[in-house]
Amino acid sequence: MNLYRNCLLVLALFLTASGQRVEGQDKGHAEPRCRVVPLPGHRTAFEFGGKEVLVWHYGKEYPRPFFYPLRSREGTVLTRMGHPGAPDHDHHRSVWFAHHKVAGVNFWGDEGTNLGRVRQKQWLAYEDGDSEAVMAVLLGWVDGEGRELMEQEVVAAWRPGGKSGHELELQLTFRPRGELLELQKTNFGFLAVRMAKELSGHFGKGEIRDSAGRKGENEIFAKSAAWMDYSGPTEAVPDGREGVTCFDHPANPNYPTHWHVREDGWMGAACCLVEGRILKKEEPLVLRYLLLAHAGKNGSREFDAVAQEFGGRPAFTVRKSTRPHRQFEVLRKQLPRN
After folding, report:
1. pLDDT digits (tens, 9 = 90+) for 145-176
2. Can you tell me the distance from the alpha carbon of 315 to that of 173, in angstroms, rounded to the nearest whole number?
3. In this structure, are 160 and 143 located in the same domain?
4. What is the pLDDT of residue 78?
5. CA 149 to CA 66: how far, in whole Å?
6. Judgement on whether residues 19 and 153 belong to the same structural domain of the protein
7. Is residue 128 in some structural domain?
8. How many domains would you assign to the chain?
9. pLDDT tens-place string over residues 189-234
10. Burial label, 158 (beta-carbon count in 10 A; 0-12, 13-18, 19+)
11. Same domain, 194 and 224
């Protein structure tokens, strides 16, 4: 009898311990929904629920890094590599950062004279979470003689978003390597988006529209707006729209920004379209943008709501980490209390 009781006691203790261990693993080791995953070939992927939703490409075979592909929640690829009909526009790589005239150096095109290149110097932090996955990297803007003119800190946060769609939030900080650096007047730079062919106004069924209610290249080109949308019906959403809406943040200089748009399928937030600016070492230029990869029947009301929420969202800060085994970390700044 004692042996029987002892066996029951051991079995009960085993089952209890096993249940606690499994519960602890679920709590302590469950993977966050949003993850940043480094890949071979100088790529960094953003994953949601174990599926790849966006990739950052930074290999030296390209003149500058870029994001591709940007997908909607339906899985539709919303951006493309290059122009559908112009081989001299291969510098249009999905979602990228560039500028045509930085102290006379061309960081926009791939061909020509006096070209500059943008290189990733290092990654700073990868942060996983249930509400967003965040990547922070450091880029160097180098002229044709190998001199670094400017440093760019990129914080990119992929977020599942709300009902309207997925989000790619971008915070770009530009610091001159010298005391001063001229960003000359130009239509090109800093943020650019090349849309998928089927979403182009000319090659597909897409349409450009902005926060002021204007539509089409002729009405919108070089105008200022709080947001710019490029979207149209797709195979996945034939009775609605899929596309990308780019939001300018109210804290950006010269808000709302001016836009360079084309019916052939691209849009860019042009912070130097009206006038150039001088970068100062003690006053970095910080630009914040939000790309909404939307699907469904979204319009001005939905986009205005996203714009309002984004406008009140805290900015990021990158700092030396206080956590073990991490050199840097990315945090949201705390908003001042009223």
Report:
1. 999 999 999 999 999 998 999 999 999 999 99
2. 11
3. yes
4. 98
5. 20
6. no
7. yes
8. 2
9. 999 999 999 999 999 999 999 999 999 999 999 999 999 999 999 9
10. buried
11. yes
Whole-number Cα distances in Å, 120 to 43, 82, 173 = 11, 21, 14
Which residues make beta-bridge pairs with 57?
43, 66
Instruction: Give residue 16's domain range.
Output: 1-30
Judgement on whether residues 147 and 14 belong to the same structural domain of the protein: no
Q: Based on the domain organization, do 80 and 26 belong to the same domain?
A: no
Q: What is the pTM of this model?
A: 0.90
- Whether residue 337 lies inside any domain: the answer is no
**Residue ranges, the chain, pLDDT below 70:** 1-29, 336-338
Per-residue confidence (pLDDT) for residue 334, from 0 to 100: 84
What's the Rg (C-alpha) of the chain?
23
Residue written as token pair 């004279």: 113
Do 221 and 279 share a domain, yes or no?
A: yes
Q: In this structure, are 160 and 138 located in the same domain?
A: yes
User: What does the alpha-carbon distance between residue 114 and residue 146 come to, in Å, rounded to a whole number?
Assistant: 12
Dihedral (C-alpha) 180, 56, 96, 328: value to the nearest 10 degrees? -20
CB-based contacts of 338, cutoff 8 Å, min separation 6: none
Does any domain span residue 250?
yes
| 219 shares its domain with 305 | yes
